[in-house]
Amino acid sequence: MAVAPKRILKVGKSRISIGAMTTDVALAGMKADTTYVPIGGIRNIGNSGMSYQAINVEEIDDGIVRKGKGVGNPGSLPLTMSRRPTDAGQLKLIEASRSDDAFNIRIEEPAGGGKWQVTYATALVMGRENGRGGPNDTRTLISTLEFTEEAIEDPTLADTLAA
């Protein structure tokens, strides 16, 4: 039996775009959004994904902690960007941070072989911090995308990045 080569899935060349304000959490609705704008200058994309709360019940009579799985949290996506005051994606992100509404998010990551894995989510934009640092640093924009539902990976790989 032939062994398939192990492919390294790199982060370089990944792109995150912000779309329209939304209440539609279906994949079809997020894909149909025509207002996505790539966010420029991204230096670091944090971890994201579903996590669950632990339920612990401590019973005195037998001294054992009983455990259960509680509610899920769709997670958040911290972003650090080189500050670009005229970048359309950063400007849209800053504007979205002033809203109480969720926005469509599209994440495009290299899948190898010229294909792209595309993930869609709805998120609240939580903040727009200006990072500064020391004399050998550059200014940054820091924001966190708080997912309102679990992110959805498009089951088909894209041949190219979306326009």
What this model shows, in words?
By secondary structure, this protein is mainly beta. Helix content is 10%, strand content 48%. The chain has one domain: Factor Xa Inhibitor, CATH 4.10.410. The protein is built from two helices and ten strands, in the order βαβββββαββββ. The strands form two sheets. Strands 1, 2, 3, 6, 7, 8, 9 and 10 form an eight-stranded antiparallel β-sheet that branches. A two-stranded antiparallel ribbon has the order 4-5. Strand 4 (51-59) and strand 5 form a beta hairpin. The radius of gyration is 19 Å and the shape is globular. The mean pLDDT is 89.
Query: Structural class of the secondary structure composition?
Result: mainly beta
Tell me, briefly, the overall form: globular
Strand content: over 45%
Radius of gyration: 19 Å
In short:
The chain has a single domain (15-153), classed as Factor Xa Inhibitor (Irregular).
List keywords for this structure.
single chain, 163 residues, mainly beta, Factor Xa Inhibitor, two-stranded antiparallel ribbon, 2 helices
Question: What's the layout of helices and strands?
Answer:
Blueprint lengths: L14 E8 L4 H6 L4 E2 L3 E4 L5 E9 L4 E10 L2 E7 L5 H10 L4 E11 L2 E17 L8 E8 L4 E2 L10
